[in-house]
Design brief:
Helix content: 25-40%
Number of helices: 2
Shape: globular
Radius of gyration: 12 Å
Strand content: under 5%
Oligomer: single chain
Distance between the termini: 35 Å
Order of helices and strands: HH
Number of strands: 0
């Protein structure tokens, strides 16, 4: 079965717990740790914006 896309209003911290990965796995484009209260929607928007450049 196919897995569904994770909701955009999920936070980075809760996604790390859900996936069972170490804290700090998700990084900002500059290489720094992403805040755990940042929304997944924001990360996707930033990635799309960086892709367009």
């Amino acid at each position: 079965m196919a897995q569904r896309k994770t909701r955009g209003d999920c936070t980075v911290g809760s996604l790390e717990k859900k996936l069972g990965v170490a804290p700090g796995t998700f990084r900002n484009p500059d290489g720094r740790d992403t805040r755990s209260d940042k929304k997944l929607r924001t990360l996707r928007n930033e990635a799309e914006k960086a892709k367009r450049k």
